[in-house]
Specification:
22 strands, ten-stranded mixed beta sheet, single chain, four-stranded antiparallel beta sheet, alpha/beta
Length: 495
């Protein structure tokens, strides 16, 4: 299994037609290909968490890399230690399968494993500053040539040609280093599962999408002449790495290459715009009824003391913006009994959530009349589970076809804010997969597979059945005997 992190499906299709990805094209010609349906309103943290655990964020809890600290208005980094559930390769290990897992981002670390796992090595968005692994000695035992130099952070904004040149060169160096370690691991033994993820498509997409997309508001022809198309160059290098990895495999190996999400121009409503809409709705509606207004009046008299720097501005608000830099804006209802100074009473929660969803769905561009919102996702309904309240109540998915600097509706009038174009590229729907090998019928799958389908698919190919909501999209080998594996501490339903 080879992940190309946030490698956009439309871009890949274009380079298929141009003949620029020969190794991936060869796999597709003899195998099965199709689309991956992302998690509506959510980005890479949620997708990789769901890929690894085979469950959705309402169960594993990882919606975003910064989330509300329960019982407060503070936001803090969300790391794998707060996730619920185990990675699917733990279940494979309990079934006696040997696995090697190299740098899957946002995924739990298997405490015990029939094999090896390295994390936080060179992902996009590490949980910690140093690599960790199973066994614990694995990271420290890496050869010097596999120790990356001091990181050039993919999270720092770069706009100059010199800065983008430095980033591009480092991304290619990281890709070469990743390929070398993957090849070394692949040759160590005959693994049942070998899984690695290439982060380089993710990083280059964020920073250089404006060079790839000639319609981008920040498209720079001069920089393009100097740099070439860094996105295309990285995808070609990914394809070359794929060719080397496939060549190192036996003929009876099933190869699955995939991307869980796409990449595109970063057109979305800024946090300032969302905040302005929410304030206007509170002004016009009263944010939760007479009792809530009375409570708000009391709260407004209270002085704030020792407010942390990252404390959200929520006093007297019926709903507020939660940090996200992904595919959608996140809104949390200021709920009595859940938030320290809640405004909306529990009995009014559903109605207020529906009111907010309807209000955002009605937003248009005041100049053109274009609808600004493609979907408003109700988190309790779309992502039910014990962790549903860990992040936000609504996810506002913006139409991504033009900059958004103003929003209008009958309810709010018109509000304005600067367009959000940092980074140049951001996550869009557009995942895909290509699978080839023994027992994989050639063709194109019409319906999209789900992110949670990858875990049971990998297990099925290895003759293992694991519990969860996903369904395998590749069949087990005809000769395989299926073994059912349950989570630790549960009884096998067949017993």
């Amino acid at each position: 299994m080879i992940g190309w992190d946030a490698a956009d499906r439309s871009a890949v299709e274009g380079w298929f037609r141009a003949g620029d990805l020969p190794h991936l094209s060869a796999l597709r010609a003899r195998g099965l290909s199709g689309r991956v349906a992302g998690l509506p309103g959510l980005g890479d943290d949620a997708c990789w968490g769901s890929f690894a655990t085979g469950t959705e964020p309402g169960v594993h809890g990882r919606f975003h890399h910064r989330q509300i600290v329960p019982g407060t208005y503070r936001i803090a980094n969300f790391f794998r230690g707060r996730m619920q559930g185990e990675p699917f390769w733990s279940a494979l290990g309990r079934a006696g399968r040997r696995v090697a897992v190299l740098d899957v981002p946002k995924a739990p670390l298997a405490p015990e494993l029939e094999g090896i796992q390295l994390a936080d090595w060179m992902p996009h968005g590490e949980d910690g500053p140093t690599p960790v692994g199973t066994p614990a000695s694995l990271a420290a035992s890496l050869a010097d040539r596999f120790r990356p130099p001091p990181s050039i952070s993919c999270h720092e904004a770069r706009t100059s040609t010199a800065g983008l040149t430095e980033l591009r060169d480092r991304v290619h160096a990281d890709l070469d280093r990743r390929t070398a370690l993957a090849l070394e691991w692949l040759g160590r033994e005959r693994w049942d599962l070998f899984l690695t993820v290439f982060a380089e498509s993710h990083c280059i997409g964020h920073h250089c999408w404006h060079l790839h997309d000639s319609a981008h508001p920040s498209h720079d022809r001069e920089a393009l002449r100097t740099l070439g198309n860094p996105v295309a160059a990285v995808y070609r290098s990914l394809d070359a790495a794929l060719g080397r990895l496939v060549a190192a495999c036996d003929a009876d190996t099933v190869v699955l290459v995939f991307s869980l999400m796409g990449m595109g121009t970063n057109h979305m409503g800024s946090p300032d715009l969302v905040d302005a809409v929410l304030r206007r709705l509170d002004e016009r509606r009263g944010g939760g009824g007479a009792r809530a207004w009375a409570r708000r009046a009391v709260l407004s008299l209270r002085r704030k003391r020792d407010t942390p720097v990252n404390e959200l501005d929520v006093e007297g608000r019926s709903a507020f913006v939660v940090h996200t830099n992904s595919v959608a804006s996140a809104i949390r209802v200021n709920l009595v009994g859940r938030e320290p100074h809640g405004i909306v009473l529990p009995g009014a929660y559903d109605a207020h959530r529906r009111f907010l969803a309807t209000s955002f769905a009605a937003l248009v561009d005041p100049r053109t009349g274009r609808r600004l919102v493609s979907e408003v996702v109700s988190v309790p309904e779309r992502y039910p589970g014990p962790q549903t309240a860990a992040f936000a109540d609504l996810l506002v998915v913006w139409n991504g076809d033009a900059p958004i600097t103003a929003a209008a509706s009958e309810s709010i009038g018109t509000v304005t804010a600067a367009a959000a174009l940092d980074p140049a590229g951001n996550h869009h729907p557009g995942g895909w997969f290509v699978a080839a090998g023994p027992g994989v019928a050639a063709g194109t799958r019409e319906d999209a597979v789900a992110v949670v389908d990858f875990a049971p698919t990998a297990a099925a190919v290895l003759g293992v059945e694991i519990p969860g909501p996903g369904r395998p999209f590749l069949a087990p080998p005809a000769s395989a005997e299926t073994m059912t594996v349950t989570a630790p501490g549960t009884m096998d339903p067949a017993v």
